[in-house]
Every structure is written in C-alpha cells, then in structure tokens.
Amino acid sequence: MSSIRNLYQSARNHNVIAGILINDVISFVAFLSLGFLIIGIVWPGDIQIFLGAFFGTRFALRNEVSQNHLLRIGLLVGIVGGILSALSMTAFMISLFIFSIGLQNGYFLMLFASFLIAALIIGPIIGIILYLHYNHKRKQQKASLLDDEFFEDLKDK
Known about the structure:
The protein has helices at residues 2-13, 15-33, 46-62, 70-101, 105-156. By secondary structure, the chain is mainly alpha-helical. The chain has one domain. Helix 2 (15-33) packs antiparallel against helix 3 (46-62). The model has no long low-confidence stretch (mean pLDDT 82).
C-alpha cells in the first residue's frame, strides 16, 4: 500500500509528466475498450483523445502548486499528451494491420495525421477550458480567504 502512496505522491510532485502519461494511457485504454474502432463524433479518435486530455489535464492542473503557469501547463499537457495519444493509437493500428497490408509509410502517415488533427484541436481546447475552471476556482478561494482574514482582524479589535 505504501508503494501506491509513494507512486501517487511522486505523480503529484511531477504533475506535468504524470498528466501527459495519464492523457496517453486513458486515450489508449479508451481506444482498446471500443474494440479498436476508429470512431468519433466529428473526427476519428476524438472521443478517446477527449477523455485522455480531460483526465490528464485535470490531474496536472489540480495538483499544480504555483498559480502562475496554469495556462501553459494546461496547453502543454493537452498538446503533448494528445500527440503521444495519436502516436500510440497509430502504432497499435499499424501493428494490427502490418500483416495484411504490409509496412506502408503512406498508411502510417495518413492514420497518424487523422489522429493528430483531433489531438491538436481537442488538447488545447480542453487545456484552456480547464485552466479557466481552475483559475476561477482559485480566485474564489483566495477571495474567501481574504474575507476571512478581514473579519478576523475586526474580531481582534
């Protein structure tokens, strides 16, 4: 149990790297759980990339200590995690079809480009939306803390 606690604590300390890895793992698991189908609402793989980007970016922003770089962290986790997700889904699809179609670079690039388009659109959008959410949440907490300090000063007088 302590090794799980140590792993979680290490992930919280290195929240950007952990967020990127969570992004990739959740996208890939969602891709596997849907039966390797390249499905999407607008673009192939967009559902899987959305799930990974949401949970990975949420983890990274929720565990960020400094409040100065929230937008940069949200964008970084969304974009880099999306690119890794697109690469891992493409590599898996190519490994499945390599025996039937052979190793064709054109097919690899076409498949990677289709996943990459979804990743480069969805990742930054999720990063910005979650940045706005956590920035608003932290401003509310800071305002309530200032109000509490003000009333505590009045009580002392």
